[in-house]
Amino acid sequence: MIRSFSWTGFSRTALCGLLIAGPGLLGACGSPPVEENLTTGPATATGYPVAVDNCGYQQTFDRPPERVLILQGASVGEVETFLTLGLGETIVANTQYYGVSDIPGMAEQVDALPKGGLVLNAAADVPAEQILALRPDLVVSTWSGGFDPKYGFADREMLHQAGIRTLVNPVNCAYGKPRNVTAAEEQTYRTGSTESSLAFVELIGEVFGVPDQATTVVNELRERIELVRQQVAGQEPKRMLIAFPDMSVMNANGLPAVLSGTIYDSVVRAAGGEPSFPDGDWELTGNLSAEQLAAAQVDVLILGAYRPGEDLDAEAAKLFAAYPQWNAAKNNTYVKVSDGIYLGPANAAAIEKIARVAHPTVF
Q: 63 with 204, same domain?
């Protein structure tokens, strides 16, 4: 069974702030950021009715949802997916936000969405009574726990009885699911990757009757990722460490939060690297020691922005001073990213940034 990470002492909101403003690419091998404009206009909905089996919950959509609530869930990938598909006008309230993004202009788009006057509860998401009062026709959560009543949230059946459909990002069906977690759901959760981000784009395209539009977006993002893979093929993989200095609250020893496993390792490998701590999990993030960090092989330091205004150049200098034995410190090699290492449509942008710093001779 999936064992959830303990959030004792800090909220999901405090850790992921509501995701997105665009950090640039910096480091020893600085390159200009890749320009992109993935956000598309709305298309004509087709293909109804649409039957969806989402985390074992069966629903039928007779028309595109028109009043969408996106739960916070310490994520930003869901709201970014809606915007990338040109579905922002369907959002009646969005609680996801991060303040910085690897996609130019995305932070501003997210910030401009209506917030619905919602107040998050002690579990850092929208309580049941506020959802019902808002009267959405679709509620989207990044994890199954977003519909667990023990946190004060509305469960899926309660919302269904009120005429409200629900969706969980399929990669996270097993995460926080109170019962009936299948082996397939657990496997999907444990093997999350950039493909998981694209699968959610396809799901939203299906539900909103714009599958061709979703396919176009998915193909473009996948092609960009595959192009990087081809460009770095044959290069010696660089050892890469993803660290978020401003998330040190996640680490019992006060160190920057080191993220590893699933989507994080997938991004690193697509960019021509190997994780310094492969296949890690929240246990690694929460308990990594200074001694482990000192012994790590780090050729490229990937610094994550947690909120706008962070001085990641200064943070890189501090880490390199503390760990001068790293190759990254000796060569002053680091890159700044933000939402692109999480689930969501920004993966391609982050992979391009990282690869240009790690393997500058092939770009």
A: yes
